Amino acid sequence: MEMKMAVGVANWLVGKVLTKLSDGLVSTYMASSELGSNFLTAKNQLMYTQALLSASVGRDVGDDPGLRGLLGTLSNKADEAEDVLDELHYFMIQDEIDGTKEAAAEVGGGIKGHSIHGRHVARYTLGNCLPCFSSPRTQGDEPPAVAAAAAATNSEDKPGTSNDDGDVDIKLPFNRIAMSKKIKSVIEEMNSICILVSDLLKVKTANQSSIALSTHVTTERPPTGSIVPQDRKLYGRSDIFEQTINALTSGTYHDKTLSVLPFVGPGGIGKTTFTQHLYNDEAVKGHFPVRVWVCVSTNFDVIRLTREILGCIPVTNAITNASTVEPTNLDQLQRAISERLDSNRFLIVLDDVWTCKSERDWKNLLAPFTTGGTKGSMVLVTTRLPAVAHMVKTTDPIELHGLEPDAFFALFEACIFGRNKPRIYDDDLVNVARDIAKKLKGSPLAANTVGRLLKKNMSWEYWMGILEKNEWQSAKNDDDILPSLQISYNYLPFHLQKYFFYCALFPEDYRFYDLKKITNFWIAMGIVDPNCQNDKNYLDELVDNGFLIKDSDSDGDEYYVMHDLLHELSRNVSSQECVNISSLSFRVSDIPQSIRHLSITIEDKYDESFCQEICKLKSVIDIGNLRTLMVFQLYDSERGYILRDAFEGIKSLRVLFIASLPEYLPESFSNLIHLQYLELIVPLGERDNKHSPRTLPRFYHLRFLDLFDWHDHIIFFPKSISRLVSLRHIYSSKEFHSRIPEIGKMKWLQELREFRVKKESVGFELSQLGELTELVGQLAIYNLETVASKGEANDAKLKDKRNLKELKLIWGAGQQITDGDVLEGLQPPPNLRELGITNYGFAVGPSWLCSDISIKRLESLHLNGISWDTLPPFEQLPQLTNLKLENIAGMHVFGPGFGGLTERSFMYLKTVKIENMPELGEWVGGDNSPLFSRLESIVCHYCPRLSSFSFLECCTNLCRLDIINCPKLSQIPPLPQTSTLTELCVGYGFQASLSYDGKYLSADGYKGALAFQNMDRVEVIRIFSSPHVSLSVSDLQRMKSLRELVAIGCASIFSAEWFDAVVLKELAAHDKSLDEENISVAAGLIPEVAISKSSHPGSFRLEYMEVTSISAVLIAPICRRLAATLHTLRFYYDEVTETVTEEQEEALHLLTCLQSLYFTCCKLRSLPRLYGLSSLRKLSIADCDGIQSLPPKEDFPTSLLILDVSDCCSREIKEEAEKLKEANPCLSVEVSNTHFLKPS
Residues with Cβ < 8 Å from 469, sequence gap 6 or more? Predict the structure, then answer.
């Protein structure tokens, strides 16, 4: 596999060099007389070698150390060639920006040509005299054409290197002769190696058969069987094991003809062991008369597998006597299986499935098992690949993850000691073992690997050595953890191997949220072709192959993360090129000299040894040869200066992630001519001192600039930033986008969120947008009132920006429009999805929107502050689903027949939002209101004159209705008018009088009608001050999820029909979702229940009750019905009751399950005796000023543990409470003057 990787890498790098050689300008330069006539021959040799390499990728070319060494040399030379060609391209870009011809293919004749040539000769001669100007590039030297720049400017803040605007004004000088010699040298060296490699590859392919990668991998997979090894106990999966047994034998799959259940997880996680235990369970054996185990591995051959399955099915006597002919083709094999199964229920295990070429192959394999037979048959599939599990499943796969810590440690100890732990296994060894176990991330295979290492030597020193050096990572046996996982890596296509390879640079448990950013990172690394990515989701491909996990955080945002052991694998396979070092465990001696890509994770804790080790880094690796440098986490200025000094000399970087201000950057930062991705994060404590590096405009190859962490507070950035002509993306605030002058020079820019026209400032004319044809996503253009004519508007060339999806055109409020055709000239591209027009104060809309419509794919339209007599014909926009109208003066009626709208104008709309419409009085539906049936969301805010929605009942698919500050709106049907309406808000100001989300209903003073019949899933109803609201028996019967009903000031909500139909009993009986029901009722309700003839014990199943009247509850019939379940009773602000009668006290004593009792009764003069409440734990008395004393201690139950007295003025009560505490030390007494709070 190392050879296959070497071939793949060499093929990739040679291809990158050929791509650069094929660039028009570079190709012309290379073919010029200065490099001689051998360029075409050398290029042809490169293409020939690449063709041989491409043909060898994925094939077995043997493991020849000589060929492997040549491929390594070729790869290094290809890297060197890419650097020098990239450097040439840099100066060609500089020529294009400045209008010079320093790096042109031919300098020409005449005085100017001779002058340029003379400068180059002098520069080259000087370079031969001074070491810092040396031309040929060796390890540690400057690039040939950049060397002079080191002498000219090598500091970000060196005096005399900037102009009046603070921009660096010294260009990097170009040395033509040095460049030509270096290009010629490296191409010739590369060419000579290509000849040797080509000759060897021809010999290899001639002498060895080409074996497909999948076939080669097959030999690497050990077979598996169904028998559980004697020492292989199942640890930590008892719950899922029992659930699966039940599902197999009597549950989920019992009534289905055939079910396919995959077990998926990374290598070594225990899929096969888990399945072996299932297969051999006695319940499974008894349930499935026929059981078959087949190890599939990487060779998914339908005939082979069918033959193996057939061989495992017992032959009945009838079949034996009938025929002895051995089946040969697939049809005969399948028929033989069907005959042998003979309608028996069967269990087939397909273990270790790596691939299945197509669904057709899978269906062919299953064909003999899907016809007839007893229901409940199963196929279990184990696989590392989620893509395989997804293809074969008929039910959700079971994902196996690492074991929980306790279960894993038990397994770990068993792997070390077997059944008996030795006496020398003391606390010191236990602690080391636990520390090692934490690093193994719950992997059973890792436990086996490390267990074998630890059992060799039981000394503390040996174990500590394994812990500190992670020695299990170097274990090479096939059944060790990393070799096992590496099989998965070897099986990946080469392009996915590259992506996984560089994932080693990210810290453990790193979450990849932004697919675009990680793809751009790979583009900058050169492993993704930006012209051929076709919006592929490379992370999803790694998910399908089991190398990443897709998950969501607490906010619902999706991210990708790598399993810890696979992260170790990534570090292992890339260890000679990539390393991520931690500031807490970094030792420079562990870093290979060949490292090209480096990342550092800064820990919060300051570590002096890290600073010492990082300073030694230059002595181990070639800093100048680093292609990637990423620093994760924020750090302080002290570590900033240390990192600056450590990385002085960087010059070949393609990617730089760093938390840094200019003063923390290495002096060589200004010469990073290869840089393609730059992310700058503000260091700790420097939030008020933000300015970007002044040499930033020099990075002509920069594609991606990430200043997102700076938000919109960058104090300074160079005015010549538009020299970044290769820039594709600027990750920053939209305010930063709007401050870039002469942005039109960045013709490849794909992201410009905001542009502000400033005629008084050079570089902010609308015409700057003309050349930005690659823009994607959203663009907002402000200050359009300064645009004087249609011609000036045409200069923006908006209709040529075919990838633009969202456009906002914004005029200043109250500004007079001088030319009504300006908007006509701002015609968007035909593929536009969202359009917003604000404050365009002209009477007529543009033809491209209002008559001859050119944006047929528009999905969302926002019109704000317009004065058009006629609105656009929405019916001619078949994809328009979202409409927002805001602040449109003169619109009195909205709907068909007004403003040019027809009934068909609303036939496609799903969302309509009307806001700040002071003159709108009516929204009408017309004669064909059913056309509104597609509407899913209606939002109406701040329309003070709006009085009716005459069509609302026709909106049968409405999901959201939001009405705020529309005080005259009265003609509203009962809400919610359909069961689909689960997002409802009606209110004034910031306070909603009605809100409903499908589960929770709150109405406070709402005057409209409520449609309870459409709230079948409601769980909580809280209604206040709505005396007209009533709740019928049938409504309650539909509310099977109702668990809480609060009704205060709602005299009509309760009906005698409730009690005749014993609805409360049914409500309790149907409430299966929760154990607790909370009902707070008006004072007159419960006495009616008490006298209802149909009420009986069991009518109530309440655990918590809150009432405003003691007399409403303390009635013997009621308390008998509450006795079995009521745990908490609260008398809340009873302003009538002065004394608890004897009959009420007796009724109270019937509540034998009562645990908490609360009195908040301002007129109550004395407490009832409570000795009969044998379960009472807490008694609370609050705001009971009329109570002058407590009952004697014998009137309290012995079960009482808490007595809480608050806001009672009587000093006697407080003193008596203290005496009770003295008499009963177990009683907790709290006496305070705080306001009473409802118990949680």
Answer: none
Q: Could you tell me if 1063 and 1037 are in contact, meaning their C-beta atoms sit under 8 angstroms apart?
A: yes
Q: Which tokens in the block code for residue 907?
A: 């036939």
Q: 530-535 long-range contacts, Cβ below 8 Å, gap at least 24?
A: 530/703, 530/728
**At residue 844, what is the residue type?**
V
Lookup result for tokens 């004004």 = 169
| Angle at 768 (CA atoms; ends 531, 523), nearest 5 degrees | 20
- The residues with which 629 forms a beta bridge, in sequence order, are 598, 656
The pLDDT value recorded for residue 988 is: 79
* Euclidean distance between CA atoms 818 and 482, whole angstroms: 72
| Distinct helix (H) and strand (E) counts, the chain | 38, 38
Conformation bin of residue 985: beta by default, left when phi > 0, alpha when psi is -120 to 50: beta
Strands of 628-632's sheet, edge to edge? Answer: 578-582, 597-601, 628-632, 655-659, 677-681, 704-706, 729-731
Task: Kindly state the tokens that stand for 86.
Answer: 């990239």
925 CB-near residues (< 8 Å, 6+ apart): 895, 896, 932, 950, 951, 954
| Cis amide leading into 976 (omega within 30) | yes
Q: Scanning the structure block, which residue is given the tokens 């690497």?
A: 220
Side-chain-side CA neighbours of residue 762 (13 Å) = 3
358 phi and psi angles, rounded to 5 deg: -160, 165
| 3-state SS, residue 1079 | strand
Tokens (6 digits) for 771 = 């050349």
Give the Cα-Cα-Cα angle 153, 157, 162 (nearest 5 degrees): 70
Q: 56 CB contacts (<8 Å, ≥6 apart)? A: 7, 11, 201, 204, 205
Q: Among candidates 771, 878, 784, which has minimal Cα distance to 826? A: 784
Can you tell me the distance from the alpha carbon of 146 to that of 87, in angstroms, rounded to the nearest whole number?
Answer: 8
Identity at 455, one-letter amino acid code:
K
Assigned token pair, 622: 């070639």
Three-state SS at 656: strand
Whether the Cβ atoms of residue 197 and residue 66 lie closer than 8 Å to each other: no
Structure tokens at 708: 């997102």
Please choose, from the candidates 1191, 1227, 1107, the residue with its C-alpha nearest in 3D space to the C-alpha of residue 1157.
Answer: 1107
Residue 311's Cβ-count burial label (10 Å; 0-12, 13-18, 19+) is exposed
Longest dimension (CA), the chain: 123
Cα–Cα distance measured from residue 166 to residue 170, given in angstroms and rounded to the nearest whole number: 12
Q: Which residue has the tokens 């926002």?
A: 862
pLDDT-flagged residues of the chain (< 50): 107, 109-115, 117-118, 120-141, 147-162, 164, 209-219, 1056-1099, 1235-1240
Q: CA dist 496 to 167, 540, 1046, Å?
A: 42, 11, 58
Place of tokens 């009938």: 322
The tens digit of pLDDT for each residue in 828-870 reads: 999 999 999 999 988 888 999 998 899 999 999 999 999 887 8
pTM of the model: 0.77
Least Cα distance to 340 among 322, 364, 313 occurs for 313
Q: Hey, which residues does 259 pair with through a beta bridge?
A: 378
Cβ-based neighbour number of residue 778 at 10 Å = 18
Extended beta strands in 703-756, E state: 704-706, 729-731, 754-756
Residue 125: count of CB within 10 angstroms of its CB: 11
**CB of 515 closer than 8 Å to CB of 295:** no
Quote the tokens at residue 598. Answer: 């480096």
Q: How far is CA 588 from CA 140, 585, 592, 611, 641, in A?
A: 19, 10, 9, 11, 19
- Enumerate residues 6+ apart whose C-beta is below 8 A from 177: 120, 121, 123, 124, 135
C-alpha dihedral over 507, 509, 511, 512, to 10 degrees? 60
Per the structure block, which two tokens stand in for 134?
């040396």
Provide Rg for the chain, Cα atoms: 39
Are the CB atoms for 716 and 166 separated by under 8 Å? yes
Residues 133 and 487: their CA atoms lie apart, in Å, by 49
| pLDDT for the residue 627 | 94
